[in-house]
């Protein structure tokens, strides 16, 4: 069985983010890119399936500027995926989720996977559109918020649960399918040092942007364009309570909760 | 021109160590410091990730890292806890004599088990009567049949109370001085080996340090490392390799002190403004940053020198000596910046000073490093 995992490079959540000079997008100069957190869960799920069904191979595919995509791919290789494909993004023009899905579909189709796994959304833009768009383009059923995924070899079906606000919905579907995993429901493993060294030397298959653009034709142009990017404004409204004793402070807190915040009558 | 850039591989090793330090070591550092607990579960996790036995070549199952990469990892680990780092890198110290002087048969027999499973080893050179003057050590090795009988006592041995294998330096005849010293591999399970419990220490309290007594311990000739009389040279060449990471360890502690001090200086207000806006505090922070930067460059340079195949005796002595002295200055100033809070155990900086202190003493006290540096210096004028 072939599994493809979509692995997005995103800015390290520990880096300091700021808008670019024109205020249209995030300033990415000097930012460190890492494998998106939710996609780490997807890689973990792929590796669990591989461990449960010998003979399974896992390929990570990332769409992005090559240096960034490589970070996500090498991180996936270090975790244990077998192979990696970098799908190059256009160097100077913005991309949007639909263009991303089209470019990824172009690559995914080459490998005819039984399962395409992805995080439910990316930890940077949180758009959550790519998996379903990809399913649509490839004509594969797609599901979101997936947990507890198994492949039953004897009947060749995928079984999984969907985490909904009301409970777990159990689903069976024959492969192929695109499955977007619920965030961080499994506890992704940590890459070990020898695997990190190995991943740095592993080959990465590359699909250059001109090839992608030629294959997509008119679809190679993003239809949406970011026009502004602002950091969230600092929260206001914090209120410091000054009091002589803890008891007095507590009494004042209760008063505020009752009278000003109407938390309890 | 030298190139100071780190490769992607270097950075990914740094990231691994940083993540481990932050998520596994740091949360337990204060507790282990308070109680003196040896956090074996953390060391096991570190081993699982490949953060132990960094110097063991890949052909024996290790990671076969160069010294610069080892130093990058050690600095990150020590940022979370110097004591835990001492215990994590003690295997590198204990196994280095074997790497330098062991036969292929010995390496193939002894090294792979350390890479397949979690085991601890310890380097036993120091004795109650001799530390710096290692050539005067008294532990005796008497030839008997096709082996040796060891008698004597070692002290201050990192991981001594918990390790399963000791690299022991003993003399065939004290009158021979350096030339009598020979290195042996001694399993702790050998009859006559008595490892004492860990000592109470000022710092590095998550590491276990103790004495080991050898009462008529039989060692087969196949467990002698190198030739008879080669032990002193093996010990010195080992320290040439392991001294630089001690500098990196000092830098990790110093970086933690600078991080705490700088962050605190922006929060703590006196006379209407953050203390970081008082020039006296800024000058302290600037001096700390300079000291640390110089120390890091010296460590990188020593590691780079050794990675290129040179012995690096001078460079590693300079790096270890400067970095450990700098770590004392930096941790001292960090406490000063914290004021009274810095003196309190509820705050993290006083531990850093206690942990930094050891880096001036072990793996060759700094007085000895200066003797080495001066000797090399003067030799070039003679
Ligand atoms: C926590 C800890 C862990 C350790 N781990 C290990 C280990 O794993 N394995 C191991 O073998 N050892 C270990 N040691 C021992 C350590 O390496 C020695 O303590 C160190 O080498 C100094 O030896 P000493 O204590 O005998 O001091 P001494 O040699 O007695 O020195 C006392 C003082 O005199 C100075 N001095 C000595 N000779 C001269 C000289 N010629 N000129 C000027 N000054 C001089 C020294 O620098 C020092 O300041 C450890 C020590 C500690 C505290």
Structural overview:
The complex is a heterodimer of chains A (about 260) and B (about 375). Chain A has helices at about 35-50, 65-80, 95-110, 130-140, 195-200, 210-215, 245-260, and strands at about 1-5, 10, 35, 55-65, 85-90, 115-120, 140-150, 155-165, 165-175, 175-180, 205. With about 260 residues, chain A is an alpha/beta fold. In chain A, the strands form two sheets. Chain A has a nine-stranded mixed β-sheet with strand order 9-8-7-10-6-1-4-5-11, sandwiched between helices. A two-stranded antiparallel ribbon of chain A has the order 2-3. In chain A, helix 2 (about 65-80) packs across helix 5, helix 3 (about 95-110) crosses helix 4 and helix 3 crosses helix 6. Chain A starts with a strand and ends in a 5-residue tail after the last helix. The model of chain A has no long low-confidence stretch (mean pLDDT about 90). Chain B is α+β, with helices and mostly antiparallel strands and about 375 residues long. Chain B is about 55% helix and about 15% strand. Chain B is built from ten helices and ten strands. Chain B has helices at about 10-35, 40-50, 65-80, 80-100, 105-115, 230-265, 280-305, 315-340, 350-360, 365-380, and strands spanning about 120-125, 140-145, 145-160, 165-170, 180-185, 195, 210-220, 225, 270, 275. In chain B, the strands form three sheets. Chain B has a four-stranded mixed β-sheet with strand order 1-4-5-8. In chain B, a hairpin with a 2-residue loop joins strand 9 (about 270) and strand 10. In chain B, helix 3 (about 65-80) crosses helix 6 and helix 8 (about 315-340) runs antiparallel to helix 9. The radius of gyration of chain B is 21 Å and the shape is globular. The chains are: A alpha/beta (about 260), B alpha+beta (about 375). Chains A and B meet through helix 5 of A and helix 1 of B. The site of flavin-adenine dinucleotide (FAD) has 21 residues of chain B, from strand 1, strand 3 and helix 10.
């Amino acid at each position: 069985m072939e599994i493809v995992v979509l692995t997005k490079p995103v800015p390290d959540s520990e880096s300091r983010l700021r808008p670019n000079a024109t205020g249209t997008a995030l300033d990415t100069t000097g930012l460190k890119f890492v494998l998106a957190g939710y996609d780490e869960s997807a890689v973990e799920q792929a590796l669990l399936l591989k461990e449960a069904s010998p003979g399974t191979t896992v390929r990570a595919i990332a769409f992005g500027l090559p240096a960034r995509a490589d970070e996500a791919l090498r991180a996936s290789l270090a975790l244990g995926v077998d192979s990696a494909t970098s799908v190059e993004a256009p160097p100077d023009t913005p991309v949007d989720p639909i263009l991303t899905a089209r470019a990824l579909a172009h690559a995914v189709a080459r490998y005819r996977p039984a399962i395409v796994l992805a995080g439910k959304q990316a930890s940077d833009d949180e758009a959550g559109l790519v998996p379903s768009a990809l399913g649509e383009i490839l004509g594969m059923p797609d599901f979101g918020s997936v947990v507890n995924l198994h492949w039953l070899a004897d009947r060749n079906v995928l079984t999984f649960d969907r985490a909904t606000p009301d409970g777990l919905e159990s689903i069976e579907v024959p492969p192929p399918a695109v499955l977007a995993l619920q965030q961080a429901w499994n506890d992704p493993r940590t890459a070990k040092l020898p695997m990190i060294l190995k991943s740095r030397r592993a080959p990465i298959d590359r699909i250059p942007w001109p090839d992608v653009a030629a294959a997509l034709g008119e679809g190679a142009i993003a239809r949406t364009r970011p026009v502004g990017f602002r950091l969230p404004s600092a929260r206001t409204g914090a209120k410091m309570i000054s009091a002589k004793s803890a008891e007095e402070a507590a009494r004042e807190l209760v008063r505020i909760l009752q009278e000003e915040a109407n938390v309890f009558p | 021109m030298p190139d100071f850039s780190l490769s992607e591989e270097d950075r990914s090793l740094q990231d691994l160590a940083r993540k481990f330090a932050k998520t596994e070591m740091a949360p337990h550092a204060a507790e282990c410091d308070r109680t003196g607990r040896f956090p074996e579960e953390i060391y096991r996790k570190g081993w699982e990730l490949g953060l132990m036995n960094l110097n063991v070549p890949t052909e024996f199952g290790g990671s076969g890292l160069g010294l610069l990469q080892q130093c990058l990892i050690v600095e990150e680990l020590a940022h979370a806890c110097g004591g835990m780092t001492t215990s994590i890198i003690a295997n590198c110290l204990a196994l280095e004599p074997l790497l330098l002087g062991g036969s292929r048969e010995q390496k193939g027999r002894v090294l792979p088990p350390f890479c397949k499973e979690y085991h601890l080893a310890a380097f036993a050179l120091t004795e109650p009567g001799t530390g710096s003057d290692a050539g005067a050590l008294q532990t005796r090795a008497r030839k008997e049949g096709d082996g040796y009988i060891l008698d004597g006592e070692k002290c201050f041995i990192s991981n001594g109370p918990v390790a399963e294998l000791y690299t022991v330096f003993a003399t065939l005849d004290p009158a021979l001085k350096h030339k009598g010293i020979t290195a042996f591999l001694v399993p702790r399970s050998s009859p006559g080996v008595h490892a004492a419990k860990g000592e109470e220490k000022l710092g590095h309290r998550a590491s276990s340090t103790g004495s080991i007594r050898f009462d008529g311990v039989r060692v087969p000739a196949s467990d002698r490392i190198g030739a008879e009389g080669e032990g002193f040279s093996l010990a010195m060449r080992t320290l040439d390799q392991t001294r630089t990471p001690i500098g990196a360890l000092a830098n990790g502690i110093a970086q933690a002190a600078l991080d705490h001090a700088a962050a605190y200086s922006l929060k703590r207000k006196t006379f209407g403004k953050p203390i970081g806006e008082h020039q006296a505090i800024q000058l302290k922070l600037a001096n700390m940053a300079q000291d640390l930067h110089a120390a890091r460059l010296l460590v990188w340079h020593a590691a780079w020198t050794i990675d290129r195949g040179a012995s690096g005796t001078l460079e590693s002595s300079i790096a270890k000596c400067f970095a450990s002295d700098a770590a004392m200055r930096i941790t001292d100033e960090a406490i000063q910046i914290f004021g009274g809070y810095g003196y309190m155990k509820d705050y993290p900086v006083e531990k850093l000073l206690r942990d930094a202190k050891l880096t001036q003493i072990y793996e060759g006290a700094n007085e000895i490093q200066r003797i080495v540096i001066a000797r090399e210096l003067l030799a070039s004028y003679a």
